[in-house]
Amino acid sequence: MAKEGETIRVDKELDLSNAGRGVWLVKVPKYIANKWEKAPGNIEVGKLKISKQVGQKAQVSLTLSDAVINIDPAEEIPRDHRLDVSVVTKQTLGVFSHAITTTRDDPVPECEKQYMEGRIVQKLECRPYADNCYMKMKLESIRKASQPARQVKSLEKIVHNYKPVSDHKHNIEDRERKKAEGKKSRDDKNAVLDMLFHAFEKHQYYNIKDLVRITRQPISYLKEILKEVCDYNMKNPHKNMWELKKEYRHYKEDDKKDDDATKDTMSDSDSD
């Protein structure tokens, strides 16, 4: 096969040197196909016998080899089969193959070429004889097919089933956090105002998250109080931050300069 990064050159010319060869298309039962798939490539899988009498249609039979029969001794299958032959007249069917070859002179190490192996001239269907072996095999297949896919069993010990996680940890924590916030008790309005005025004595500007953390009040209740005593800045340099209304301010000039020097360290995002 080609190495990683290399491409396989495909020869688009179809090799027709075997186009005139006649081939058979044979349909075999599934139990034979399964045996042949398990068989190694160096053994004989069966023998084909063709007998023809004058004025009669050719009789074709298949006998499986002992090596195939003994691949799985526990699974008994018929050894002898007949092949019903039908001639292909109204169809043009062919068998094609492709092979990957390596050439020394080609800079690309591998080349894929397509071949026509022949034209299908006859169809054959492999059928077993209705002997005891075949009837036993069919009876066993019917018995297996009649068994329910699910069966009731009595348990002697506890069975631990590990099911997929239906809800992730971070979703549960987020719901619990929102639930806890929703249950925050509302303090008296005057007490909340005292906390706000005390906070604004330290800094002139706050975002809503910091005020919720300081007052520990529900955000909707806190915004109702803020609208009474504060202004919400919609423009830079203090966008999305709250400050006391002019009638409630009593900052000194030096304190205001100090507050302006520290405003860049505070978050300017608001969940309003």
From TrEMBL:
Gene Ontology cellular component terms for the protein in this record: transcription factor TFIIF complex
Compartments it resides in: Nucleus
Name used for this protein in its record: General transcription factor IIF subunit 2
Described function: TFIIF is a general transcription initiation factor that binds to RNA polymerase II and helps to recruit it to the initiation complex in collaboration with TFIIB.
Native species: Anopheles culicifacies
The UniProt record lists the keyword Transcription: yes
Pfam assignment, any one: TFIIF_beta_N
Domain TFIIF beta subunit HTH residue range list: 186-249
Highest classification ranks of the organism: Eukaryota, Metazoa, Ecdysozoa, Arthropoda, Hexapoda
Keyword Transcription: yes
Compositional bias ranges of the Basic and acidic residues kind: 253-266
Any one GO biological process: transcription initiation at RNA polymerase II promoter
